[in-house]
Amino acid sequence: MMAGRGKAIARGLVSEATAARLRWKKSREARQALHGLARAGRGVSEEVRKRAREEARDRFGDARHAEWLMVYAAVQGRYREGWIPDSHYIERIMPRINGISHHLAWTRAATPAFFDDPAVCDLLYLINGRALGRDLAPMSMADAVRSLHAHGPHVVFKADNSAFGKGVRILSVPDLSADRLKALGNGVFQPRLTPHPDLAGFGSNALA
Fold this sequence. Notes:
The protein has helices spanning 2-39, 46-60, 66-76, 86-98, 101-104, 111-114, 141-148, 178-184, 197-200; strands at 124-127, 130-133, 138-139, 154-159, 168-172, 187-191. It is 50% helix and 12% strand. The relative contact order is 0.08. The chain contains nine helices and six strands; from the N terminus they run H-H-H-H-H-H-E-E-E-H-E-E-H-E-H. The chain is an alpha+beta fold.
């Protein structure tokens, strides 16, 4: 019984540490955004800062959420009602809405279970050193390499638990081999998309 209680305490400490790290990360992101916006001449007035702090305390229970409200005001050029701070959304709303699915969604091979639609551009998945086709049927690494050759000179590999560009790599198909695929870890291969020429004119490497 003592062992079980000890495990429960340990899990609680890990959970608290994880939550604290998330709060720190979101706060850092907001401060960096505010700093960048201010350098670009899009700072916020003291009046907006005061309003953001008051609304963060009254509506979201903590003044630290004010940083994201200030970011939105800086981008918008004025303060508007109805904003939900990114920090509050990530910490409070997403876990309640998605539940365990929030964690499952970080595994790329779970995509067919959530979005079984031809519009999904996944080609194949890598899980624990094995390759699975789009239909999750097992395939050899040699077959996986051959199948990727049908999708142009480059493909995109997105690692599990990746987002905002983290864990995303553009790979040369001729350089791929069974050993190279195994070394990539878990994730999904997708074709490399190119923007319409009108959008490419904006000069951004990020498709979104």
